[in-house]
User: Fold these one by one.
Assistant:
Number 1:
Amino acid sequence: MANYKIQSWIIFGVLAVLTSLYFSNLYAASIVSSVAIAALLAGSLRFVMLIGELNFAIAAFVGIGAYSAGVATTMLDISFFLAIILSGIVACIISVIFGSITLRSGGPYFLLIGFAFTEAMRIMFSKMEVLGKTSGMIGIFPPLWLDDWLSLSAVIICLILLFALYAIEKSQFGIILRSIRDNPDVTRTVGVNVLYWKVACFSVASFCAGVAGALQAFSNNVISPGDFSYLLAVFVLAYVKVGGESSIAGSILGAVFLVLLGEFALSMGAGEHIFYGSAIVIAVLFMREGIIGIVFSVIGRIRITRTAKESRA
Amino acid sequence: MELLLQLIVTTLQISAVYILFSLGLTLIFGVMQIVNFAHGHYFAISALITVYFMPWLVAAGFPAAGAYILSGAFGVLVAALLGLATYYFGFRYFQRDMVGSFILSVGFVLLFDGLFLELFGGAARSVPSLVEGTVSAFGVYITGQRLLLCAAAVSTAFILYLILMKTKLGLALRAVSIDQEAAMLQGIPYNKIALAGFMLAAVLAGIAGALIAPVSIVTPAIGADYIVKGFIAVIIGGLGSIPGAIVGALFVAVIEAFGGYYYGASTATVATFFLVIVFLLFRPKGLFGNG
């Protein structure tokens, strides 16, 4: 039986829920939702990294989720929670088709085609009459009774999905994914259908990306094609790299840290591009394991000195 | 018939710049196994500097052609320096690490995007025309300026092809891209060759930028469009393959010229993407790719 670290998750979950309850004014609540969405996206991007692939199509799937939610709410009158699940499913279905073609070669091909897919989807959003062309869609409101609780529901949904990603990573599924990353050929020789599991991994991650997109649509009420350019994927990558990709806690930490710091830096008038760009360069060059790596090494050092003292005593 | 010829000429014009671009990308990938998204910014800085300095030199009394050559050469030099800086402080540590180098290059992309915007401002610029008049043959019209630049791009691509195929440096570059360890066993100094390949690619991007400056509207974001097209070209041709990069660039240019004429530019871009997806169905590693 895998160790799911239930205690840490419960503490973290309670803290997150309390935070979202504490910040009730509109601006703070919107920051809480964007932190939660960013954390979910970071978890999704990192999940595909488990098979050693970098998923730059994530921005496209966020966009697909957001537009699905927009269509479901403003045109089809589908209820809030159903619309969110539906957005995830739409993203998931498209990702299965996309993944089963592009993941056959993987590596740089998958990465670059994902990038091109993001750009192609962005152009398609801005060309389609139904989706409001370049001005996008407006009036994507959650139901009235939920208005005050939107950031709380966003936090809870993101927590559930993040825990699901964590649980999958710790299960047999996760072991297969990591073995594919370490050596796909050896994995194939023991009878694992590598492509099948890669696509499964990619579709789970894309489901999360779609849900994150829907949450973003509901929390901003307005979406436009420009929100889903490749820059979105770059920002998510920054969360994962700065936080540290060795564990899901790192990705969450990176998302929280960078979104809050970014909000602060933007209020100081710094350019968003320069801020995120230098964050990525510094993280990649000087702290390969990210913030979580530093945290772990500090904890490790404390443990070593403690055991050293105990053994001396 | 005349329309067809006109479109073919347009294709050749577009493809000349794409070829320079995708040759650089495939060269870097082949030698160092890195995916460099900042490549578009070597191109952009060169175009920006050309556009910035040429009117200034013209105002100082230089003839237009002299001013263009001087400012273009300065642009290429700055592009090369930028390439050297990114290599020395970054990519040097990420050879053969595709994901790591890509993430680093994306960081550079954001950083340079912001810096260029601060330095040059967001306004679109263009330069005074170099050569007046149009050339017409068989009912096809092309401005003298474009013809000249097209010729320059084609000859640059040809010179690069000769360097890669006929010189010792080219032989070493190709050897390293086929099998790095075997090449090192033969006494090829890998680090020197990697730097040479990287700089060659950066200079190519710089030349492409200086060439595109007079015939296009230059903004700090000009690199982004070309990098996407360049990478699509390289994917079609197969990463690391030199003939593949040329064929891929031609393919992208054909879709852009013909599709753009009949259905509009953005439809052509989306079509390029879907055609690449269909293409990958049959050739997952591109036309000439094997690794």
Number 2:
Amino acid sequence: MKVIVPVKRVIDYNVKVRVKADQSGVDLANVKMSMNPFDEISVEEAVRLKEKGKATEVIAVSIGPQQASETIRTALAMGADRGILVKTDGDVEPLAVAKILKAICEAEQPGLVILGKQAIDDDSNQTGQMLAALMGWPQGTFAHKLELGDGTASVEREIDGGLQTVEIKTPAIMTTDLRLNEPRYASLPNIMKAKKKPIDEKSPADYGVDVTPRLKVLKVTEPPKRTAGVKVKTAAELIDKLKNEAGVI
Amino acid sequence: MASLVIAEHDNKNLKDATAKTVAAAAQVSTPVHVLVAGSDCGAVADAAAKLGGVEKILVADDAIYAKMVAEPMEKLILSLAGNYDAILAPATTNGKNYMPRVAAKLDVPQISEILKVVSADTFERPIYAGNAIATVQAAPGKKVITVRTTTFKPVESNGSAAIEKVASAGDPGISKFVSEELSKSERPELTSAKIVISGGRGMQSGDNFHMLDKIADKLHAAVGASRAAVDAGFVPNDYQVGQTGKVVAPDLYIAVGISGAIQHLAGMKDSKVIAAINKDEEAPIFQIADYGLVADLFKAIPEMEEELTKLGY
């Protein structure tokens, strides 16, 4: 069974985001970029499936600028076998990403596609579900635990009230939540090995997908700022302030 | 034309998130209809019929909707979508699960977690963990929207909508609900509680969270946690407040032993009043807290409890 893992190049999660003065977006010039943290969890899960003999090949796919090939290399260094870079500049909305992934799924026939539940830049939380719908496949989103059966997958999911287990038929889509696993660090020998693994370069046009955004971003602004209030000295003073000054207890 | 709101419920009780989503829907397209998809969910339909400004309740009562599994939900919503120009669901784990499937099948983008309806086709939504707000305009055509419920006021319960049964759309047969493990608590739900007290890595263990439980019981508060505390196994995942957990905006948020990573702030910075207790006076949480107490929480929390008892809480 092949496993496809889409990986997105995003602003590093430790970087403080700055909104551009002209409100056209956030400033990404000279900021550290990394693999979306949820996608690292996806790569780890896929590589573990391969190590357990359940997956035969792990394919990392990234849709983005030329530099997204570095993100694919990271996945290859973690243990993915080969990469596909679908090169495009500018923002690609989740629906267009899902359409490209659909074309790749039709060509590669994977048994499972593992995606991060959301990317930490646009926080959309859509792509996996959209791909599942376009393929007519079931989904196990926000996965906490995965068990593969024969033609089925049992996915324990993080939901608002706790945990839920669903059983889905494969081929299927899974999206990863934080506690599915702890992604490994790539070792130096594996980083060297990854340089020799193949990355196929494609364009959205190769898959017949129009990536023109459908939503128009009118502006990007800073959220209302909160400022530091006062420091209190004791727990009793804190209770007093909350009761008599703020009136919230 | 009209908008369709997908109700959030547990087959017995209608969740507050629905009334808030209706408030958003009323600003996008009227009249507003509400779809109650569930199993033996008559009581939910009755409660939904009272939501102010709602014209009609559609009830799809079938065992396959009991847990709102995404694949049958997609089919059901698509079977009704033709009558609506906007379809909205609260951005709960249910809404986030089935709505993108609906959007993809309608070949429209989904607009996730809107904070505000600027006009019928323009919305504000958070990006980068809420560190930026994007104002986006949808192209003409159907809109599929999830709503961040903390920023909308629920509509009042003064309506009397008609209730209409709709046919089940059937089970695609590719997925099934197996089981669930829900955290049991007598306390209010995190996302609707007026007061939330959350613990972080500084709590050091799951047992120590009982200190927060005691305060929560006195204040009728919900207990939350930072990602660090959940990852460390102190408390279950559904306690997590933050960019990838729950977003809360209570009247009072008390952060205990939480340093204040941006991912956590994303989930609570819209709280009306924020109090923070941390022994590290450089902790970033103090930069946004209205009241900060630099102290060892193991001393401060029992003192708080004692003080509350003294005041008759």
